[in-house]
Amino acid sequence: AESKAKAEPITLDVAVVMVPLPAQGHLNQFLHLSSLLSARGLPIHYVGSATHNRQVLDRASRLHNGGTACRPIHFHDFTLPDYSSPAPEPDAAIKFPGHLQPAFDAARHLLSPLADLVRSLASRSRRVVLIHDSSMTFAAGAAASLPNVEAFCFHTVSAIAGFFFRWELRGKPREPAVEILELPHVSNEDCISQQFCDFVLSQQQTTVADSGRLINSCRAIEGMFIDLVAREPEWQDKKTFAIGPLNPITFNQASGNGARHPSIEWLDQQPPSSVIYVSFGTTSTFSDEQVAELAAGLEASGQRFLWVLRDADRADIYAETGGDAVEKEKLPLDYYTRVERRGKVVRGWAPQPEILAHPSTGGFMSHCGWNSCMESFSAGVPIVAWPMHSDQPRNAVLVTDVLRVGFHVLDWDKRAELVASATISDVIERLMASKEGEEVRRRARELGGEVRRAMEEGGSSKTDLDAFVTHIII
Ligand code: UDX
Q1: For ligand 1, what atom is nearest to the CA of residue 157?
Q2: How far, in Å, is the centroid of ligand 1 from the Cα of 331?
């Protein structure tokens, strides 16, 4: 990667440096943003460990298979201290999984090589814009005391989750616009580990050079919360660009090598809006008992389903297999025979954004990670919300109580309980086949239209993205 950087022309006009948090959901958003900015002709320098960069490259080749006319992204592989971590425990689902924390801690060692890279680019460019994850604010230190370098903070979680997180930290001053919503209560302590909270807060005390914010969200989804965060004391004198959704919303028919993923071929055979897609992101692992209840619930629901059955990512496993997690067999073999006419189980990595945008997909049972929410909103697909940790419970409140484009599987205060198959089949039927579900499905379709329009010429997100690009190049 260094050699690629050296191959750059001696004088660059502008350069953009991306510093993601090393977790799959965050790497994805930085990849999407990189592709969008690169398609506007901006040179992108993507910074991370060799392992994470390889994952992103691998994903880029699958997701952006020639569909996005973008210049190559320069990946800078920096060596970090060993951050291999133990396998995630199933019960780690309740709070932000500790198995990722070593990778986050190791990522702090990026600062010194990052500062070298930024200095080198700054000496050859009119302007350098550094974009770091909102959980990696230490990276803004690489912009310090360089007059032609700006740092932008990229919020890879929803505005609602960020707002409630800070609202609670500040001791909740009265905010009538929020109180009036009477939303179910979720506390920071219940969804974020103290270790992760300390990791984020310790960096905020040392933040330097902060020119503004990017939010992967859109006014149609959470305009009220975007306004609230933009008015927060530490934000109000900074530029705020709400530029989401960043995920692709249209897809080529074939993948990079001309073949289609088996799950897409299977969806091709199903009636319109008939399939519930079931997937819980990259950071949570169900217990074997919960997997058995989910399997039985899907079977009992009588609905068609496409289920991605995988454990939370471990960087070491992920690297060895080039993207597909290896796991032990979790379902009895006769399960596959029983459900084969209307159910498909995918092992490993599935092309989620493409699955959600497929016309046969009619619902999504999701942990409500922010990528999953944005991908589902933009495809107009309603959600059965089963949040686990971090921002997810607050995203689930947005889905069900604010936007009313989904149902909760269970109340958040029952999150530690095993969810019985009957509860699972009931909520799936409610979403996919009831009259009440029809209203929710209709609202999700409407929201999908509004979100896609936000990305078109004159739409709010496209306007903000254009303004951000203009800010970079002028
Ligand atoms: C984590 C946190 O859990 C989440 O709350 C936060 O907003 C981002 O970081 P994660 O568990 O990875 O997210 O979930 P999510 O944000 O939904 O991201 C998962 C991403 O991986 C999505 O973009 C999804 O499309 C992709 N994915 C996942 C696949 O493409 N295929 C898969 O098989 C699994």
Answers
A1: 7
A2: 23
Cα–Cα nearest to 323, from 309, 313, 333, 332: 313
Residue nearest to atom 29 of ligand 1 (CA): 352
Beta-strand ranges (E) seen in 280-339 are 304-309
> What does the pLDDT look like over 292-337, one tens digit per residue?
999 999 999 999 999 998 776 654 344 334 444 444 567 888 998 9
What is the rounded distance in angstroms from the CA atom of residue 430 to the CA atom of residue 286?
23
H or E element that contains 291: helix 288-301
Confidence category of residue 221, pLDDT binned at 50, 70, 90: very high
**Which ligand 1 atom sits closest to the C-alpha of 366?**
17
Phi first, then psi, for residue 294 (nearest 5°) are -65, -45
- Angle in degrees, CA 386, 391, 392, rounded to 5: 10
**Residue 471 annotated as catalytic:** no
What sign does the dihedral 281-285-286-291 (CA atoms) show?
positive
Give CA–CA dist 228/289, Å, rounded.
41
What is the reported pTM? 0.92
The active-site residue out of 133, 311, 313, 391 is: 133
Please state the ipTM of this predicted complex. 0.98
Q: Say what the alpha-carbon torsion angle 94, 371, 16, 243 is, to the nearest 10 degrees.
A: -120
The closest residue, in CA terms, to atom 4 on ligand 1 is 369
Which residue's C-alpha comes closest to atom 25 of ligand 1?
352
**Which residue ranges have their beta carbon within 6 Å of ligand 1?**
23-26, 28, 157, 279, 281-283, 308, 349-350, 352-353, 369-372, 375, 390-392
| Catalytic residue status for 133 | yes
Distances (CA, A) of 377 to 107, 134, 353, 422, 444: 31, 22, 11, 27, 7
Please choose from 99, 372, 386 the residue to mutate so as to test ligand 1's pocket, defined by most ligand atoms within 8 A of CB. Answer: 372
Token pair 């929803």: residue: 158
Residue 68: C-alpha distances to residues 18, 32, 246, 313 (Å) = 19, 10, 13, 27
Helix (H) or strand (E) holding 395: helix 392-397
**Parallel/antiparallel/unpaired status of strands 361-366 and 343-347:** unpaired
Secondary structure (3-state) at 390: coil
